[in-house]
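I would love for you to help me understand the pair of lines that follows before we discuss the fold together.
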Amino acid sequence: MTTGIFEQTLDRLENGTATVGIIGLGYVGLPLALACVKAGYTVIGFDVNPARVDAINGGEQVISYLDPQEMRDAIAAGKFEATTDFSRLGEGDALSICVPTPLTRNRDPDLSYVVNTAEMIAKTLRPGQLVVLESTTWPGTTREVVQPVLEEAGGIVGETLFLAFSPEREDPGNKSFNTKTIPKLVGADDPQSRKLAETFYGKTVAQVVPVNSAAVAEAAKLTENIFRAVNIALVNELKLVYSEMGIDVWEVIAAAATKPFGYQAFYPGPGLGGHCIPIDPFYLTWKAREYGVESRFIELAGFVNTSMPRYVVDNLARALNAQSGKGLKGARVLMLGVAYKSDVDDLRESPSLTLIDMVEAQGATCDFHDPHIPVVPQTREHANLSGRKSVALDPQTLAGYDAVLIATDHAAVDYDLVAKHAKLIVDTRNALAKRGIDAPQAVKA
């Protein structure tokens, strides 16, 4: 082993003189970049989107819950810059890959972003660099996919270049936890890489949790999200059962949650959203097939969760038919919220976009109001909705719709106003009841 190379990188990481490259400046990469600046590192952020790079360098607020002044201060101090010039990847002593890992249309893992990033790193790879994959993926990706690409460029992992996996654990908009305070898992297949990754993140976050291999860290991240997906599927199925029995599932969950042990509350909804929960379980089910193992429990949870938008639309149609006798055809529907979760501007994998398509496929027109998303951006699965604008929320607007469908429970929405002026409300988030708002025209779905 070339100990000098390892020791030089370790020294720069320990004393804060290292330059860090963050690849992908989205909901994971940008917060990580700012956390690295706070730790004393100089950071170069890489992104393929020129408009986003310009906005970041211009000090604009590109993520609603991040303080743009923090970014402006880092830029002004010369500690942070964003670029589309990937030829500068060689400047980083540590490189963190924070790119998407979506699914294909056949629900197979799409690692094209990871592979392309690894290939770009390989072009400028120099001895001593630490490369850390943060993107959620199947166990074995770091060793089986990323490592060969890097080693083809020259060098050996654990000797002249270093490789680790440290899964992102961001929860957009969560005011209780952030990049700095969420414990950071770090896994690598050799002790040198693990030590460098521990040192890097040890200066950046409050707690580092090392594990013995990259695969363990990869599997741990999947396990976290599969746990959530399965339990959400459970309460979604309970909602179907209890609804038929005339029992309010929200009241049931609140009652069960009074038990101080052996129970954790999860809540139903109109479908799963965000980049993690709807996608990550399928990375494991895909990989499990390689080993001849059927992951039936996980796949069943995925089936239940992906069926929820249809359940909501069916309930909306029944409620309209009961009220006016005309159902969805020709109806005007207002969707409250297109973000995938409350109080963020993030609509990745949002069930609201699926709901809009389903409602309009039934012959209705569907507008939306979202205080955090004024315009629907371009998305891969719902390109037809790109450019749609949020409508105002006022008495006149509400009165003009046959139904209001609450898909996202944003705190900024005036639900008293909605209850007073909407003809029919279909509430998928228990938004009215939990605020103590009595609306006779509201139904839960």
About this structure: Residues 214-244 form the longest helix (31 residues). The domain at 3-212 is CATH 3.40.50.720 (Rossmann fold).
